[in-house]
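Before we proceed, please read the two lines closing this message. Report back on whether the structure tokens fit the sequence:
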Amino acid sequence: MKKLRIGITIGLFHEAETLWNNGIKQNAVFLAEALKNCPNVESVVLVNTTHVAITKQLPWDLERWPTVTFNDAKDNVDVLIELGGQIDGNATDYLKQRGARLISYCCGFEYVHTMESILFNRPSFGENLFVNQRYDDIWMIPQVANISAPYFEVMRRQTAQVVPFIWSPIFLNARAASLPHSGEYQPKAGPRRLSVMEPNINVVKFCLYPAMIAEMAYRERPDDIELLQVTNSQHFATGCKEFIALMNQLDIVRNHKAVFLGRFDTPTFLAERTDIIVSHQWENPLNYFYLEVCWQGYPLIHNATLCTDLGYYYRDNNVGEGAKRVVEAIDQHDAQLTQYRSRQRAAISRFLPDDVELVKGYTALLNALNEKPLR
């Protein structure tokens, strides 16, 4: 079988755009790394779909991850994976006439985003909506399947299938290299700093339940908790009366043991400002943040069902159980740190781009794609 030349779309906003703060672009790079390990792949390039020029200002290795414009890629790919930038109808026609395949790679909670854009007047596409119905395949990462698969399938008129989730510590390691101990967790005497780092931009990851878990742990062990830090929440704490009123019901807030902060990058915050991460998700049971925290050996209190073997897992919305896991981390984490970090990295290895089963999965997906009739 002919080896495939593959393009993966990204959407650049400026010529020196970082990869660190953009999960979609990291997803594209991780996918590229995995596909390069597939025996039926000849080459992989990142394909920019915006008008931003591609220059040496881009802060990633352009030899390792070649990045080209759509015009430069359109005659040189056998498969275009639409991930971080959408192509239009004319570009789709051109690829189809060449016999190229087009895949929609879905790694966002599009049903939630669409629902919120309509309900809360947050326009995301307006009158310029283009729903491409000529994909040869829809690939979706497992954590978005439950809530968004029907939305993908009805609107795009194609069956969606779950594909292996991919992550790599490459960007984490680069960001943490200059930090003390490479940003890895270090044992600490005395009371612990708890942190909640939910994005707070939609309903899937919001800070209220983690704050309640911290409160329950504080009520049980007040002398063992130094501080609760809630990032990405400063705007709520200064401008949202409902949030302020709710937080003021908590002992940890009333006793001036809580602060509400802005945005931070994960590796630096972990290394400099916290001891335990408390998290909660609703229809987001696997994401990069969990893997970053656990890879570095930090205790992660979480309810993510697709990685129950990581961190300190509690079920569903059970804040009491979550609080017990916080106390467990306070009492036991430092004593078993070396074993914990080794277990975390061994468990995370199933998501790495060179994992044998993961590579087999993508190899099979590409083989099956080739056997389909063109749409």
Remarks:
- The chain is about 40% helix and 15% strand.
- The chain has a mean pLDDT of 95.
